[in-house]
TrEMBL record:
The UniProt record lists the keyword Transmembrane: yes
Stretches that traverse the bilayer: 12-30, 36-55, 67-92, 98-119
Keywords on record: Membrane, Transmembrane, Transmembrane helix
UniProt KW Transmembrane keyword: yes
Domain of life: Bacteria
Species of the source: Rhodohalobacter mucosus
Name used for this protein in its record: ATP synthase I chain
Length: 128
């Protein structure tokens, strides 16, 4: 059981790979000026998940009594970082903002679902 908690489930890894592939295939069919925004949005959504994973690694030894406050503080911090990066990219970069926003939202929602699955798995392991 200890080994399975340290590894990302194979279904999540497969879903990430398939999603990245489909996202890039979709980019091939977009108009020329929108591809950079689409890819940047995907990368920003993926960055949110990477931050969650790193935060999880740093806080995995938090006791049950402190888990919720630490998790919520980390969630707020990650949200503020992603929001800041989103605003910086929207205001400074010269790519199509609509494709960036749509690419980001789709990526962020997809990766957030994976976050919830992993969080549920962790909480289930803690309670059992």
């Amino acid at each position: 059981m200890g080994n399975s908690q340290k590894q990302i489930p194979a279904r999540i890894v497969a879903a990430l790979g398939i999603y990245a592939f489909l996202h890039l295939i979709t980019a091939l069919f977009l108009p020329e000026g929108t591809v950079a925004g689409w890819i940047a949005g995907y990368i920003l959504g993926l960055l949110a998940v990477i931050m969650h994973y790193l935060f999880s690694l740093f806080t995995r030894k938090v006791d049950d009594a402190h888990f919720a406050p630490v998790f919520l503080a980390g969630l707020l911090l990650r949200f503020l970082i992603v929001l800041s990066l989103f605003l910086v990219l929207i205001l400074t970069e010269k790519f199509d903002q609509f494709s960036f926003t749509v690419g980001f939202l789709i990526s962020y929602i997809f990766h957030s679902v994976n976050d919830v699955i992993l969080l549920n798995k962790k909480l289930t392991n803690l309670s059992g």
